[in-house]
Design goal:
By secondary structure, the protein is mainly alpha-helical. It contains 15 helices and 2 strands. It is about 65% helix and about 0% strand.
Length: about 375
Amino acid sequence: MLYWLLAPLGEDVTLLNLFNYITFRTGGALITALIFVFIFGSPFIKWLRKKQREGQPIREDGPERHIIEKAGTPTMGGFLILIGMLLATLLWGDLSNQYLWIVIFVTAGYGAIGFVDDYRKVTKRSSAGLPGSAKLILQFLIAGAAVFWMTQLLSNAPDVPEGFATSIAMPFFKDILIPLGPLFLVFGTLVIAGASNAVNLTDGLDGLAIVPVMIAAASFGFIAYIVGNFVFANYLQLNFTPGTGELAVFCGALLGGSLGFLWYNAPPAMVFMGDTGSLSLGGAIGTIAVAVKHEVVLAIIGGLFVLEAVSVMVQIASFKLFGKRVFKMAPIHHHFEKMGWQEPTIVIRFWIIAVILALIGLSTLKLR
């Protein structure tokens, strides 16, 4: 909104020319979302406590201490991140950019799924929520629409090689593209839905998911800015994806909103983000990865989320096939709890892993 109103005046007022720079508007979106969450965080949490009373239902099969220590903690805190993030994006973003609307569409859609899921959990006093099949169908429909929209947009963009929109770019190699054709719709949908559910599985300890989300958002904000700029993309021998640079503004808003939320979610958490936050934030990051054609790099930068999801799949497969459990409990952060690790130790060590993986993922931009 501010871009439309003030950027055209940059020719007459030098200071307003700043609104033509993505970097400036990214910083503005970050600060706006951060301040919004800081201001409304406390009253929103008080309102949630009043409405939810007993807070989020705790898994009965989870670590015993959770039933005691985390009982009464309200959920749906991710709604606060969503509102701050979307308001900041609408305020500072170029609203004519379709990639921005695609990511907003997925984020809001997944947020709505998560909100219904959280609402059912709280009102029914059950940790079940929406049926898993219903959640997956809705996620696939939203992600599929977004991927189709993005491929059409990129296919019709100038200076884009034929077939690039439906190909997978490989990190560390400047010229290798794996063409998938129509199957890219399936691949992209799985990336977005997979990222969403992986973040959801990671969100099991105070502050565990939100910091890796912030790290991923910062990483992909940088990637979006680079690949959306022809000069920078050409210098680093990356595939230029016109229009995606504006996604850096969204990533700035995501980072700011998440940073503000961490103030209230740090151990011991005053509020949980719930599926409202985890599904939407994971979906947003997955969508951005598909938009900037760095889906494989997402598996590196978001390696912690991948590890959490894989631990669940391995646990289920092992139990069904052999009747044995590989981990004491899945996702894997609960395995370490069962081993006697303290919650802050697990959280901080997982944060360190997330930083290391992000640095490895970002190194693929240069090592080619």
